[in-house]
Each structure stands twice: as structure tokens, then as C-alpha cells.
Amino acid sequence: LLEMVSSLYQEELFNAPFFLNYLQKRGLSLESIKAFKLGLCTNRIDYGIENKGLNKDKLIELGVLGKSDKKDKTYLRFLDRIMFPIYSPSAQVVGFGGRTLKEKAAKYINSPQNKLFDKSSLLYGYHLAKEHIYKQK
């Protein structure tokens, strides 16, 4: 489920030149952006979730969506944020970090702790680095 959401985020980033240029100006190559599967959460993610028939209750539980007090509506927790998928050591997406470019919002937010995502036990990018680390030993 989180892999599908991550794919939606990635697709959005490559349709948003402003955010893609921002990352490149920060020194990230297109190759790195693709390797780390960075993305972007926009309003269109709602349509992607609907079109793919993703389970909204599960997405609330995993922290992708939030639940509004009004009329039982959901909202995108990471709206207008550059998305960093966080992987388990076995290369499964278990959560996200999101960075805003807006001044007044919290700069970074993460997925909430849940059965898949325990931030204190994960090292960002380890799933990509572990093979290289083992070769060095």
C-alpha cells in the first residue's frame, strides 16, 4: 500500500518543475532523486488514491491521510511537501518524511509511529547502502 502511495508521490514530483528544480539547486542529481524515490504530495494524490481504490482507513492508520473532525472527511497529512520514503532494511516502504518549503509550517513531519514505522530503529537510506557496507567489511 505504501509502495503505491510512494509511486504516486514520485509521479507528482516529475510533473512539478518548480519542486524538481528546487531539489536540483540544493545539489541533488536527477539520478539521486530517482534512486531515493523522492516525491511530492499535491492535491492530485487524492485522485490517485481514489482511482487506485486504496483503502482510506488503512492510509489513516499508516499516517498518509488524516481524519477531520468535520463530516468524517479525510485530508492529505503531507500536502505540499517534498516526500522522502523511509524504508525498512528489507527495502519495504514503512513511512514517509515530508519537507515543506513554506515558512510558517513545521519544516519536516514524519509518519506517526505504527506497527510498520518505528523511526528510532530505522536509518534513512540503509536499504541502498547496506550492500556497499557489507562489501567494505
Give the structure's gist in a few sentences.
The chain is of the alpha+beta class and 137 residues long. The protein has 6 helices and 6 strands, in the order αααβααβββββα.
Structural summary, described in words:
This is DNA primase. One of its GO terms (cellular component) is cytoplasm. This protein is of the alpha+beta class and about 140 residues long. It has a single domain, classed as DNA primase, catalytic core, N-terminal domain (DNA primase DNAg catalytic core, N-terminal domain, Alpha-Beta Complex), CATH 3.90.980. It has six helices and six strands, in the order αααβααβββββα. The chain has helices at about 1-15, 15-25, 30-35, 45-50, 55-60, 125-135, and strands at about 40, 65, 75, 80-85, 95-100, 110. A four-stranded antiparallel sheet has the order 1-4-5-6, covered by helices on one side. Strands 2-3 form a two-stranded antiparallel ribbon. A hairpin with a 6-residue loop joins strand 2 (about 65) and strand 3 (about 75). It is globular. The mean pLDDT is about 90.
